[in-house]
Amino acid sequence: MVPGASYALAPVTMAHYKAADSKREQFRRYLEKSGVLDTLTKVLVALYEEPEKPNSALDFLKHHLGAATPENPEIELLRLELAEMKEKYEATIEENKKLKAKLAQYEPPQEEKRAE
Q: Relative to the CA of 79, which of 4, 18, 59, 71 has its CA 20 to 30 Å away?
């Protein structure tokens, strides 16, 4: 602050409070519609009803919130696709080994090639 300077504070009006309350209410409705409030309430109730409280309430919340979310269908499709690709990869590796063995029957050994 500068000595001798006067600072005017902006007056806080009722309209300012109403706007903030309106934003809070909109956010609360958003959380309610999306199921966040219900999910948080269920997890907090589970923590409250836990006979032996965990050492870390935050870890409890993280664990239960992670378990409470449904599996994204896209993730499941990607897992299935990954499993398919792994099978195809293994089959290709096996086929490659067989073809190399077959090719080795028709190629002269490396020592004979050098003698030529």
A: 59
Which of 32, 41, 35 is CA-nearest to residue 70? 35
Give the C-alpha separation, 116 to 112, whole Å: 7
Q: Which of 38, 34, 51 is nearest to 60 (CA)?
A: 51
Using an 8 Å Cβ cutoff, are 26 and 20 in contact? no
Amino acid code (one letter) for 3: P
pLDDT in tens, 22-80: 889 999 999 999 999 998 999 999 999 999 999 999 888 888 887 545 567 888 888 89
Could you tell me the sign of the dihedral formed by the alpha carbons of 71, 76, 78, 79, in that order? positive
Angstrom distance (rounded) from CA 59 to CA 44: 12
